[in-house]
């Protein structure tokens, strides 16, 4: 990190980490959607025989697809790190929201490995009984759609940090803070997929799967854009007083900036 | 501004001169109207009127309470949102 | 964006009061985004209704129109209090404004209490989200709205803190006041549509 008046020498590595987020999305889509053909998700109400047949017929493409997807997941971590660098610029010396974002962001691969491994296990011995395969399939899909808890707080943490930015030219545009709040809210319904087997909240439903997927993708694209922008601004004007929070705290409160 | 403060604080009756208060009375009357209509079971016209009244209320809240009256862009967005939502909702309702 | 030209402006915040927009542009992104998602939810509800209109109509009969109407009035009152609070804040009245916000919060708590009793009543009589699609949407829609009410109560707490210093707020503080108020109006506005759609339209 540049201290006083230092130039930003690692602009390239910061950008690399941001693009890692795009690579994550692309590779994951190839592995999970194209190779394993898990997008759109299968109907939760399929019979055990149908589920088992799917694993028996596609064992190798599922194995390969999950493998690619897991490589993709890890690439999310550098992306999270790149966001944290910008949040740290906002927060200054004491950076609770930066650490929150970094810590929670790193749990994403950890959270998604088990579901993907359950799919792997199902495809590993497809000669297993239909019921066992169906159970592994459920063990994969329920958390896969339902795990939004960490990313929910991650988006809130970024949102709060962005709105707490006190400089005249904020590092992230303020609308991005509200955008993070909005996407955070959109993830919420997905957690209810454990209650239903069909309808809009099922693991393949409109309000659980599709809304979360679309908002996560939108959030990813927007975050890549605004973060690249923030890095470019930082590189162009390293002496910017931006790195030392300027404005006087005018009133108490989070959103007064 | 000071005058409004005095109006609201010391002489509640005169608060009626504040447009938001009049709008609020209209909203309450509209709620009562919908509530009465709601007891009329199973008529399509009734349902359409009820939803139209609801979106008129939405518009009033948007324009007067959220203060979008003076902001052209947001006012148009609100009108577009209301129009599209109402048309879609009535369309989906009649499709039953 | 940060060019050398902008560096000169790196002092204290520039005054953003000039624009006519209440609150911040970003907040309107959030509000309109939320409105669109709710409209989507309303349409999905109506689409499921076309499959079993009789079931939806008979399930709807078990809801109390009066309770829903009372809650509508409660939220309308709270909105009026918030309007008054914003006006009082603009007038710099640090006595009246926080009182009005507290009145609005009281209305919010009444709404939540009524909702909790309503849920309890439904669950007592074995109407759960799993009963049928009408009840599923009833709990989903009102639940999502209730989340907004609870967040809104947090926002009103924040607004209350701001209004206590009504006479010394900066333009940006005022913008936060307007933003918080607008979020609470959003809560009211959503219920204005949810109530007729779930309780009245047959």
From TrEMBL, chain B:
One of its GO terms (cellular component) is plasma membrane. The keyword RNA-binding does not apply. It is a multi-pass membrane protein. The chain crosses the membrane at residues 21-39, 45-66, 78-95. Keywords: Cell membrane, Membrane, Plasmid, Transmembrane, Transmembrane helix. It comes from Rhodococcus oxybenzonivorans. This is Cytochrome c oxidase subunit IV. It comes from the Bacteria. Its main location: membrane. InterPro entries: Cyt_c_oxidase_su4_prok. It is found in: Cell membrane. Pfam families: COX4_pro (PF03626).
Automatic annotation (TrEMBL), chain C:
It holds the Pfam family COX3. Belongs to the cytochrome c oxidase subunit 3 family. Residues 26-202 form the Heme-copper oxidase subunit III family profile domain. It comes from the Bacteria. The chain crosses the membrane at residues 26-48, 68-89, 96-114, 134-160, 181-201. The lineage of its organism: Bacteria, Bacillati, Actinomycetota, Actinomycetes, Mycobacteriales. It is a multi-pass membrane protein. It comes from Rhodococcus oxybenzonivorans. Keywords: Membrane, Plasmid, Transmembrane, Transmembrane helix. It catalyses: 4 Fe(II)-[cytochrome c] + O2 + 8 H(+)(in) = 4 Fe(III)-[cytochrome c] + 2 H2O + 4 H(+)(out). One of its GO terms (cellular component) is plasma membrane. It is found in: Cell membrane; Membrane. This is Cytochrome aa3 subunit 3. GO terms for biological process: aerobic electron transport chain. InterPro entries: Cyt_c/ubiquinol_Oxase_su3, Cyt_c_oxidase-like_su3, Cyt_c_oxidase_su3-like_sf, Cyt_c_oxidase_su3_a-hlx. Its main location: membrane. GO terms for molecular function: cytochrome-c oxidase activity.
